[in-house]
Amino acid sequence: MNIPIEVLLFLPSVTFGLVPAEIFPWAFIYTFIKSNYIKIADLLIFVAFSIYCIACIIVSEHFIFLKAITSLVSFLNSFGTLFYIAKYATEQDIYKIYWVMRKLFYLLAILTIIQYVSVLEFLNEYWKFVVPRGSLSKLEGSRGVMGFSTEPSRFSYEIICFVVVLYVIRVKHRLMTIFLGTIAIIFASSLTGIFLLGLFILIAMPAFFIFLMGIVLTIYSLFDLSLPERLHFVTFLLNFDFQIFFEELLLQSFHRIPVLISSIEAVFSNPIGYGLGNWDLPQLLNNVEYSFLGGV
Questions:
Q1: What is the mean pLDDT of each successive set of 10 residues along the chain, which is 296 residues long?
Q2: Burial (CB count <10 Å: 0-12, 13-18, 19+), residue 291
Q3: Separate counts of helices (H) and strands (E) for the chain
Q4: How far from chain centre, in Å, is Cα 250?
Q5: Which of 105, 132, 213, 247 is the most buried (most CB within 10 A)?
């Protein structure tokens, strides 16, 4: 049985070592394979947009070529596919993408368990041919598994995307989707992933979130369970010490949440943004305000 190219749409970290980067533009390639549906005028829009972005990069005061180009390719990689699906995809195309996504989600849920117990660790040398920075075993310390990705946090983002889409589409299987997604992210041990999934459950299923938190609080109070080092800050939440909880959350997230906070603030201080690839610049420019996060 041939593996449909749609599978690679959801596995950008599978590069087979073809490029010295963490992602491969499978989505962009998929769009060109389907290009018999695309009009020349639409291709010209992409070309014009690329030229515009490159021009903005060149004249940028804070210009880092590699980061800028990588961000541009990543943007076009995702935007191009969304544009194709929204305008040209047939019902058969959409169903095939959905079918692949559903099957792959189950595969990832199983793979996280296999990676966590490290039963296939002896195949890591061969696995790195598929995902150069990947691993078939749990990482050292408090870090978890990473599926087909290059790090646990990126893997957790991918799982959350699966959860959100399948939650909306598969109405009768929502609890199963949430359950499998939660298992995968717990094994990934990603703080950001746990936070984002918890936020999604709170918004989508507030009653279930309260029920889930009730169970966690009960188990924690009855058995005085200990948490992994990177999740120890959660004890402040369980003890209702919210100020220390959020301070610890910011510290444990390293640059991620500070950059997010600074980027939101930058919407008002610099509405046109800081340019492709300069994702960390807002925090650097506002370092004094966020010095309590460990900035120098």
A1: 76 85 82 69 74 67 64 73 77 90 94 91 90 87 84 90 93 89 85 83 87 68 54 60 69 67 71 64 52 39
A2: exposed
A3: 14, 0
A4: 18
A5: 105
